[in-house]
Amino acid sequence: MMQLIPVNDTATAKQFLQVAVKIYQKDPNWIRPLDKDIEEVFNTKKNKAFRFGEAARWILTDNENNLIGRIAAFVNKKYKNKGDDVPVGGIGFFECIHEQEAADFLLDNAKHWLMQKGMEAMDGPINFGERDRWWGLVTKGFTEPMYCMNYNPPYYQQLLESYGFKPFFNQLCFGMHPKDSLSTKMFQRHARFETDPDFTARYIDKKHLEKFAGDFATVYNKAWAGHGGLKQMAQEQVVLLFNKMKPVMDEKIIWFAYHKNEPIAIFVNLPDLNQWFKYLDGKFGLLQKLQFLWLKQFKPNKKFCGIVFGVVPEWQGQGIDAYIVVESAKVIQTPNLSYTEYEMQWIGDFNPKMINIAQSLGEVFESRRLTTYRYLFDRTKEFKRHPMLA
Question: Taking the model in full, what pTM does it have?
Answer without folding.
Answer: 0.93
